[in-house]
Structure formats: C-alpha cells, structure tokens
C-alpha cells in the first residue's frame, strides 16, 4: 500500500536540494500542493531531477531572474499536475519523445538517465511526464500523477526497479 505523501514537503525538499547545489539559484514554488499516494523518496528524486535540468538549461545570466526556474502544481480531474519550467532554449519538437529514453541526452556531460528515471517514477505513480514550450521562452515539464494511485504500488525503498528483460 503506498504511503500518503505531502507534495508540499516533497517539493520543498527537492527545491532546497537544487538550490544548495546551485548557489544563487532560487526555485520559485507554489504551496498548497495536495497529498498523493506513492513514495516520497521517488517523487523527490523525480522533482529534483527536473529542477536540476531546469537550472542547467537556464543560462547562468538568467538564473537570478525571479521566475527563471519555477515549480508549481495543482489537482484537477482526478490527477495531480506538477510543472517545472526553465528559461533555457526549450526542447525541439523532434526531441520531445526521445529525451525520456535511457541514455539519450542533448547535454555534453551526463549519462542521459535523469529524464528516463523521471518517466519511470511517473509511471510507477500511475502517471506520465511530458515537455512543451514555456510561455516567454524555455521548457515546461509536466509531471502528471494519478490522485488515486497507480496500478502498481511504488516501492517504499525509494529505489526505481529495473524493467523486466524484453520490455
């Protein structure tokens, strides 16, 4: 049975982690996020991965802007929608599906696993992740979670299970 997770606490922890890793960066975040069934460790990892990517995508000279990196969320129509936005160059439409595949990266450094992990965590929580353009420039990643829980309960250990062979 998945635990009931305070998304406010998870979002706050993920934002502080990323702010600590990038001095001078401030993640603008909304409060009043709902509770969700799932794993707080996995959801924190997913949000931290998205926030880290948002900071890295935003040019250093824009990172201090008030809304350069944002994290917001709301519950609507049986799902919880969490959004992470940046002020980078955005994601080309032809790359929007590929970036969630393991080992695919548009960065010079990194293994290309961060967004694949986010996609798997979303799936474990009965949801999905997508990317679109952000109004005013940049990318907007949307993590959709079922407010009623996924078909499979996320592991309480916080570790993402590997996919069975052949899937």
Please supply descriptive tags for the structure shown above.
167 residues; alpha+beta; Heat Shock Protein 90; five-stranded mixed β-sheet; two-stranded antiparallel ribbon
Task: Characterise the protein shown here.
The protein is an alpha+beta fold and 167 residues long. The chain has a single domain (3-146), classed as Heat Shock Protein 90 (2-Layer Sandwich). Helix content is 26%, strand content 24%. The chain has three helices and seven strands, in the order βαββαββαββ. The chain has helices at residues 7-21, 40-57, 114-124; strands spanning 3-6, 27-29, 35-38, 69-76, 79-85, 128-133, 139-146. It has a five-stranded mixed β-sheet with strand order 2-4-5-7-6, with helices on one face. A hairpin with a 2-residue loop joins strand 4 and strand 5. Helix 1 (7-21) crosses helix 2 and helix 2 runs antiparallel to helix 3 (114-124). The longest helix has 18 residues, at 40-57.
Strand-helix topology:
Blueprint: E1 3-6, H1 7-21, E2 27-29, E3 35-38, H2 40-57, E4 69-76, E5 79-85, H3 114-124, E6 128-133, E7 139-146
Helix pairs in contact: 1-2, 2-3
Write a short abstract of this structure.
By secondary structure, this protein is α+β, with helices and mostly antiparallel strands. The protein is built from 3 helices and 7 strands.
CATH architecture: 2-Layer Sandwich
Return the domain count. 1
Largest sheet features: 5 strands, mixed
Distance between the termini: 25 Å
Strand order of the largest sheet: 2-4-5-7-6
Rg, nearest Å? 15 Å
**Quaternary structure type:** single chain
Mean pLDDT across residues:
84
> What is the global morphology?
globular
Helix content: 25-40%
CATH superfamily: Histidine kinase-like ATPase, C-terminal domain
Order of helices and strands: EHEEHEEHEE
Would you give the CATH topology?
Heat Shock Protein 90
Unreliable spans? 149-167
Backbone structural class? alpha+beta
| CATH top level label | Alpha Beta
Beta-strand content estimate? 15-25%
